[in-house]
Amino acid sequence: MHLPTTRLSLTFKAFSFLLIFLSLAFFVQAQTPQYYNSNTPGNSNSFPFNQNPGKATQWLFLPGDFSQPAPLPSGKKITTIYFHASSSGTRTFSNLTVLMKQDTITQLPLATLWGPMDTVYYESSATLTATSGGWFSITLETQYNYDPTKSLIVFVGQCGATGSGLSLNQGNYSGNRRNWSVGGCPFVPYAGTGNGAVTNFGVDVVNANPPYPVPDLIYYKFKNNPDANSVKNFAVPGAGNPIATITSLTLTHGGQFDSCISGNAISSSKITTGYNLSTGTSSFTISFWLADSITPASTRYLFGDPGHSFRCFVGGVAPVGGAIFRGTGITDVPINNILPGPTVVHLVYDSASTSVTVYKNGVKDNTVIQSTPFNFTSGTGFSVGGYSSSAGLQGYLDEFRFYKRKLDSAEIAATWNLDLNPTPTSVTPISAKVPKDYALSQNYPNPFNPVTNIKFQIPSAKFVKLVVYDILGKEVEILVNETKSAGTYLVSFDASELSSGIYFYKLITNDFTDVKKMVLIK
């Protein structure tokens, strides 16, 4: 069921009512954390939520615990925490408190509540609702910077509760991973031996906003695609086509940060970037994530530009288990031991030292001195995932980044496993052809997490407003609010700060209005 695409003349009040009515017809997606340790029902425990007199519990999560559905990367801060319920119910708590701290400890001390810790949530009265076998969440009032190399200690305490339910699923591990209080406030630690019971726990995160700019030439994230046959360039200002065409490659899941591109060594497969290699004598950096690739007998190209025979490939003369970077005027640069991956590779050309340095997963591997300085000025078409008409990518490729500058070792170490976050909302004209009619397209992908694309077209210059509403008709973000020329536009919408659920987006001009539904699943 969806709203008609004819012109509407609803007042905002009527529109809000319609949204509420529609919400009754759609299934509201259950909350799911972006990263978690386990969602398998195990032992049930009533600490700390299913205790009327009050209770405090402290858990220790080791580095690498948050590995589902993929390892929680560096450069993130926690915005929301999740618990996996073993009993349904609703409870109202007094003085509900959440504390966090990171340390290098691998187990908690006995007969004490470890501290000091940082307060990330406190409410004198808070109500939580859970369904057995599902997640329930607490949105932190203070976001917490997370370091995946350290243990995370989480403390939850409440001084009294009314209602029922909210026991938690937990698993058993070695060492002392859980401590608790003997009652409500003030919290007195249990004097006996703790145990290895660790609750099923998850988190939502956002980028910690490190001072690292996105690439300036090409940045393919493969997670905010206009459709199944094209990919958006997130580089700023960017080179080539803002929307690039995909040939004989497939957008799929399973990349470094979920979405990626996959290939089967098909001839002429590639992403046509629209950029002609023109770095001149400048330093540059190219990086990419590669996985499930093999060492074939013949070459499989990862990227290149025929104008300078500038290319990188596996197979053929490349090292077994590796790749090679070569071209006219380039002394071959071997990239050793990266297959089958996953591996993040950086190729850094330093014009000052006339050298190319290879980094693997953020660590310097080898440097090749070049006999002459590079001077690339006459590229004829840079491609990603392929080269010319040869066999292209075999395996998975993600996070392709091309900078017209040298990244130093500190920036590489900090960003090789960091999901760089470009401007959350961008409006890109994708066609100069004047449309005959108005149109608002269904967002892609849908459902999405956390970024999606919205395409619209207008047949003449108009003041355009594109607004996102929640299920109750409350305005949550204005994506476009300006005069636009006739044409077709693509709007990138990042919902990282929003909760899972149903949202609506509405296109408004003086003589056209349309609204569509989209689903955010985290």
Can you walk through the features of this model?
This protein is mostly beta strands and 522 residues long. It has three domains: 12-25 and 423-520, Macroglobulin (MG2) domain (Immunoglobulin-like), CATH 2.60.40.1930; 35-207, Jelly Rolls, CATH 2.60.120; 218-415, Jelly Rolls. 4% of the residues lie in helices and 46% in strands. It is built from two helices and 37 strands. It has helices spanning 12-23, 409-415; strands at residues 35-36, 43-45, 55-61, 76-84, 89-103, 118-130, 135-146, 151-158, 161-163, 168-172, 178-180, 197-199, 201-207, 218-220, 230-232, 243-247, 250-255, 258-264, 270-272, 284-291, 300-305, 310-314, 323-327, 330-335, 343-350, 355-360, 363-369, 383-384, 394-403, 426-431, 439-440, 451-458, 462-469, 475-484, 487-494, 501-508, 513-520. Strands 14, 17, 18, 20, 25, 26, 27 and 29 form an eight-stranded antiparallel β-sheet that branches. Strand 22 (310-314) and strand 23 form a beta hairpin. The two termini are 23 Å apart. Mean pLDDT is 88; it is low at 1-30.
